Amino acid sequence: MPAVADPRVLGGLPLFRGLSNPDLQRVNDLLRSSRFPTGAPVLTATQTGEAAYIVRSGTLKVHIIREDGHEVTLALLGPGELVGEMALLDLGGRSANVVALESAELLWLDRAGFHQLRRDIPLITDNLLAILARRLRLANAHFEALATLDVFGRVARQLLGLAEAYGEPVPGGGVRLPFRLTQGELANLIGATRVRVNQVLVDFKRRGYLTEDAGHRITVLNKTALDDYCR
Predict the structure, then answer these.
(1) Please, what is the average pLDDT of the chain?
(2) Looking at residue 32, what is its pLDDT?
(3) Separation CA 82–CA 229 (nearest Å)
(4) 132 in helix, strand or coil?
(5) What is the Rg, in whole angstroms, of the alpha carbon atoms belonging to the chain?
(6) Secondary structure of 165-224 in HEC code, one letter for each residue
(7) CA distances from 93 to 46, 89, 160, 175 (A)
(8) Are 101 and 75 in contact (CB under 8 A)?
(9) pLDDT tens column, 65-108
(10) What is the reported pLDDT for 34?
(11) Residues 6+ apart with CB under 8 A from 26
């Protein structure tokens, strides 16, 4: 059964951007759709790579567990993001765990379908390279922030990056992060303690740079002010 009712909607996903309607139909015939409730595992680091997933809705958390049992969050992935493709490209195993931070709908391709589309529709490979290049740039910026910025700067950089990637404009010029982001998750992302992140967020709220609702959804109100902490 095709993944979506109208294959043209797939053209809005970065991996399939620019494809013709006939090619989108071919993609749709190979894609499958699955739903994962909040907290459900999508991938584990011990699995072999047999499928690549595309986030259609919801949010995923990519994390690892250190030998001391401490969890380290590597990334949060929202709609349009791709996960699991590396194991299909290099035939290696999974390198991290992926869970649904919120209820998520994922489109997925098995190994055979993934390679078939790459062979038959070269633009998909071009799009994949663009996705990987963007991911590498973001990773480099993240490592630079960890090495050069204090906790205020790392929190600001992370919030600005998430706002740019997934933010939804709100009246008054703010940008709302459409997913739940707790102090613990943010602390894991930037390599800080939850207590220290709480202090930074309290300060940013007091200054009117952001707000946070009861569901831990943050709205960035002053991107310029946050950007000053990243310099």
Answers:
(1) 89
(2) 93
(3) 30
(4) helix
(5) 19
(6) HHCEECCCCCEECCCCCCHHHHHHHHCCCHHHHHHHHHHHHHCCCEEECCCCCEEECCHH
(7) 7, 10, 32, 37
(8) no
(9) 877 878 888 888 888 889 988 777 776 666 788 999 889 999 99
(10) 94
(11) 117, 120, 121
**Are the C-beta atoms of residues 87 and 98 closer than 8 Å to each other?**
no
Proportion of the chain above pLDDT 90, given as a percent: 54
Structure confidence by residue, pLDDT tens digits, 185-230:
899 889 899 999 999 999 999 999 999 998 889 999 999 999 999 9
For 166-170, the CB contacts below 8 A with 24+ separation are 166/78, 166/79, 167/220, 170/219
* Separation between Cα atoms, residue 130 and residue 99, nearest integer Å: 25
Residues in CB range of 99: below 8 A, 6 or more apart: 39, 40, 41, 42, 60, 61, 63
Which residues, in sequence order, are CB contacts of 220 under 8 Å at separation 6+? 159, 160, 163, 167, 174, 175, 176, 177, 209, 210, 226
Three-class secondary structure of residue 155 per DSSP? helix
The pLDDT, as a whole number, for residue 66 is 78
**Quick one: tokens of 72?**
């380290």
- 3-class DSSP state for residue 33? strand
- Nearest-angstrom CA–CA distance, 180 and 43: 20
- How many residues in the chain? 231
Residue 203's identity, in one-letter code, is D
The pair of three-digit structure tokens given for residue 43, joined into one six-digit string: 């991938």
DSSP assignment of 80-123, as one string?
T-EESHHHHHH--B--SEEEESS-EEEEEEEHHHHHHHHHH-HH
Average of per-residue pLDDT across 25-50:
89
Amino acid identity, residue 13? L
